[in-house]
Amino acid sequence: CHTSGMLTPNGKEYAQKIPREELTHLILKLLQAWKEPLSHFNQHIEHHQELPDDSLSKAKQISNMVHELKTGVEKSMGIISNSLNGMASSEGTALSISNEANTMSDSDFIHCFRRDSNKVQSYLKILKCRIMPENSC
């Protein structure tokens, strides 16, 4: 996976030990790493005439959700300027990561996306529990 080089906590127990700001930044880095590869993947599958329209629609919907999620995390955590400054400095790395993702097979791409999506979902649940502990987390 093109994001394998990113240091992410292995398991829920380790993720719970990471400070909120660092965990939020990690979520944003993962989402940013998928922005360009998802766009490339959408362009790639649009040229497959044999794919049903609902598959194409689903791929576009996923890309839009990743973008909206990234924007929502930035706004809700109030770290827009800090996160974007941190990401701008690693822009070159993001481009090389994107190029690696663009060369993966479709099945590997989907596998990696699912893996990272599960990580983001877990990290968001941890953040939600920290922010709203009354949810019996």
UniProtKB/TrEMBL annotation:
<dbReference type="InterPro" id="IPR001400">
    <property type="entry name" value="Somatotropin/Prolactin"/>
</dbReference>
<comment type="similarity">
    <text>Belongs to the somatotropin/prolactin family.</text>
</comment>
<dbReference type="GO" id="GO:0005179">
    <property type="term" value="F:hormone activity"/>
</dbReference>
<dbReference type="GO" id="GO:0046427">
    <property type="term" value="P:positive regulation of receptor signaling pathway via JAK-STAT"/>
</dbReference>
<dbReference type="GO" id="GO:0031667">
    <property type="term" value="P:response to nutrient levels"/>
</dbReference>
<dbReference type="InterPro" id="IPR009079">
    <property type="entry name" value="4_helix_cytokine-like_core"/>
</dbReference>
<dbReference type="InterPro" id="IPR018116">
    <property type="entry name" value="Somatotropin_CS"/>
</dbReference>
<dbReference type="GO" id="GO:0005615">
    <property type="term" value="C:extracellular space"/>
</dbReference>
<keyword id="KW-0964">Secreted</keyword>
<keyword id="KW-0372">Hormone</keyword>
<dbReference type="Pfam" id="PF00103">
    <property type="entry name" value="Hormone_1"/>
</dbReference>
<protein>
    <submittedName>
        <fullName>PRL protein</fullName>
    </submittedName>
</protein>
